[in-house]
Each structure stands twice: as structure tokens, then as C-alpha cells.
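One-letter codes give the sequence; backbone shape is given numerically. An example follows:

. . .
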Amino acid sequence: MTRLSFNNEPVTARLILPSGEAVERTIEIRTNSITGRTIRIALSRTGQCEAGTDTFPELPPDVENTTRCPFCRPQVEFMTPMLRQDVSVAGRLIQGDSLLFPNLFPYGSHSAVSLFDNRHFVEIGAASVQSYTDCLINCRNYLNQVLETDPSSVYMAITQNHLPSAGGSLIHPHLQINADFVPANHHRFLKKKADTWFQETGRFLFSDYLNHEKQDGSRYIGKTGDWEWVAAFAPEGFYEIWGILPEIMSLRTSETAVWEGLAQGIVNAQKYYRSLNRNGYNLGILSVETPSSRLELRVILVVRSNYAPWVRNDHTGFELMLGDMATFTLPEDTAKQARIFWTTGMPDQV
């Protein structure tokens, strides 16, 4: 029977310390079960405190600068663009406190921004689950409208860049939405992988991955609604966490509970990242909206270097030139540390 491979190859480096002591250092080279890409975990650096993470960073310098922020009220009413009439007669979509409008600097045929809080700045882990739920439903509603007007734009994504260290251009909390008829690299690869897996096995790719991780247990974190959360076996980002929605392929699902479960998991992960004194992170979820697609919904979250002066970036020449992610923390430790944030009764505020 076809199974996913979880390869882990330990290698040893031998060196002599300045003191003259001969030592060995262990590195784990793991292979991503989905992509086949290798990553490296430098265990000798586990427990090291990255610069700027001994305490939680100060607030961003422009945290009070609401008058120049185009996403703050009242500026948002006249500084942001409007949706086409065939997408929304009102020009913008509203769901609770979430306001959605086109991205002024689009990345594809249908590129939008969805605000999820009326505040100018929301610290990581401090947003309400309801605010994220409203924002995600607003994204869903937009994507439904896009397909009504442009059925060819089936390659869809929802992303978030929290603070400039994660690529964000504005600190006002928001998600980005994109839909296009041209697939991104990951759309193309993941669709082919998931479709081939189903043809060969009759099973779903991410469901099989999840079943393995639940049986293993060492990287399984918890559940929020129907979403199941694990620390990535072969992380390609620091403290990488996956949320998997088994056997659901579409971002256009109408069930509110799906978005509530996703929102709760996102906030849980943010609280975990905050406990590590990190203030920046990225989120991404992809879908291919064709009837034949077997690509289940999976959200990926990774922490980034803190938005603070003189901080080492977490991507180095090793990742850029060799293409292998080099991280310092075992996924099993990530799961062990994160599980408490999925425990029933965790406080809403960090």
C-alpha cells in the first residue's frame, strides 16, 4: 500500500572547540513528505535565544499614527478603492467589523484586502476569535463573488503578513485575498501531488498525512472544530504549524463553524508565538476551485524575526543558495510547547 514517507537522516559534525575539547554536533536532515524538499535542524542551536527575543518587543513606532493610515476610519472611506459593480454593488463587502475592498497594488486578477479589526494595531495573539471569523467569512464571500463573475479564476489564496518583518507594508490588521486563472508554483505542484495521490490510492493526501501524525502523536497539537493542528514534520519556516481540514477542498464552504474553528486555531498559534516573545508571523491557505481537485484545505503558519532594530533575519544564504531550510527546533518540541494553547479554557487575552 502506498504510504507517505517521513524520512529523518541524522548526520554528525565533529570539531575541536577553542578549549581543545573534541565534540560532536548532531544535525537532522528531514524530507518534507509532501514536497520532497529537505530541511536541516541544527540541534546544537536548540535553546539559543535569538537576538531580540529575550523579552517581548516594544510596540512598533507608528502604533499611534492613525491619521495617516489608509485602513483607519475615516480615511478608509476615501483612501481605498472600490470593488467593481458586478462583484459588489456597494463597492465594499462588510461582515461584522470586517471591511473588504480591492488591493490598491494587486498581485493577480482578483486581489483584495480584508480588515479584521477597527483598531489601528492589534498585537499578535490579542485579536478576538470573532474578529478573525468575520474576516475569513468576508474573504469567503468575496471569493464566491469572484467565481460568479470570473469562473476561470480558480486558483485562490488567503494570506497574512503580520508586521514588516513578515513582509507587511501596514501594521493595521488585515488579510490578503487573491484569485487568478494562472496558478502559483505551490498551487500547481500541490494540485498535481494531491490528484495523483488520490488516483493511485483512492485516499486524500493531507488526510493521510494527518492520520500518520495522529498515530505518531509526537507532533500532533490539537483540534479546533473540524480543523486538526500539527507541527510540520520537516518545517520550512521557524516553529511551523499546519492546520488541516480533512476532505474539504473548497474555501467557498458555507459552514460558519469551519471559519470559527480556523479562527480559533489561528489565535491559538499566535498566542503560542507570543509566548516565545515573537511579534511577527505569516499565514497562508490555498485552494484550487475545480470539481476534480483533490487538494484539501491546509493553513500554514510560521513565525518570523521580530520587528525590532538590529534583529537577525531568519532566512540566510543557506536557504537562498542551497534551497534547504535550516531551523533550530525539533517539531516534536514545537508541538509539546504549543499544545497548551489548544487546551479548553485558555484565556482570550495573552
About this structure: Residues 76-342 form a domain with the HIT family, subunit A fold (CATH 3.30.428.10). The two ends are 45 Å apart (CA to CA). The chain is about 25% helix and 25% strand.
